[in-house]
């Protein structure tokens, strides 16, 4: 039995087990049958992205380790290869675990905050986090946070999932800040970060921006609480008053009271390592929200696994792939440029790769060489010819 299903069985109602899983819990034989049928389903339909993620949820095997390493290295070619091997792993059926044991060891049971935060409105989440951050160990930088984790300064399990490879944890914020700054973000920009994770980027953004300018969405309340308590810290929360939401519907409207006036709309929306896990349906929701809740001059900078015109490897499933608030599986997905451009066009938007949008940023050689830390960026803007409003 895999981690996600286990959590589904034991966590709050939203993730409560389907009737199928409840039966499986009572009957180990049924578990084996269910798992075997997943394997069979996959073999019959090996190109379907949805069975992809199902099969990836098996307990780690050798190929799963190779996949994990490829993901860590942001090596999408190797990841693709090992995704395939992992899916047809003949040993998968032997790797089933007892569904009733070890919920305790789930890396996101760090502080058990999820139940308190999930599905609450923005104000509630923000004030709860403020209270939570009070008096906790504060790390000035992601590097210090990581060091603190390794030195076991933090209670066990609070350093579980970093939101990406460890060797890039500390390099990410400067990189993200460079990209956003180059694209036009200023201190007075109203910025929304979708998929905050532990907040390695949020910390820099919140410190850089004026007060009341930063908003963040992160459905994994545990992860958000750890980052807010130990990296963002009480001082920044008191002074800059960032707002957080735990909604998982890509609903940007939660940050506005009613119909927002034009000045309240976002100038910048950004996601790092989020479109590398989303389904096409989720991206469409994301784009609809972007179109509705941003100024005509706004931009979205979102990183992807690769910028490609080849759509043959695209993920066509309907669910998030990889770790999230309700999944503990590994995985990455590809969305090709033709699909992204088409989805944008439907929402009145235009998509370009950062390399196209800002070629000057890519220049440099030797130590100055452009480094996208493994995920290139896509920049999305409103299509001026579609806009009803007069651009500023
Ligand atoms: C790979 S991590 C990246 C975290 C962060 N952007 C960073 O660079 O450190 C992806 C994050 O997206 C979050 N996520 C999952 N489903 C989401 C959803 N529906 N809406 C927003 N974020 C989501 C996950 O919980 C996770 O924190
Ligand atoms: C997803 O759909 C596209 C367009 O129909 C197709 O080209 C691609 O091969 C599909 N992806 C997979 C993994 O089958």
TrEMBL record:
Keywords: Membrane, Transmembrane, Transmembrane helix. InterPro entries: SAM-dependent_MTases_sf. It comes from the Eukaryota. Gene3D superfamilies: Vaccinia Virus protein VP39. Residues 79-104 are annotated as: Disordered. The chain crosses the membrane at residues 27-44. SUPFAM superfamilies: S-adenosyl-L-methionine-dependent methyltransferases. This is Methyltransferase domain-containing protein. It comes from Cyclotella atomus.
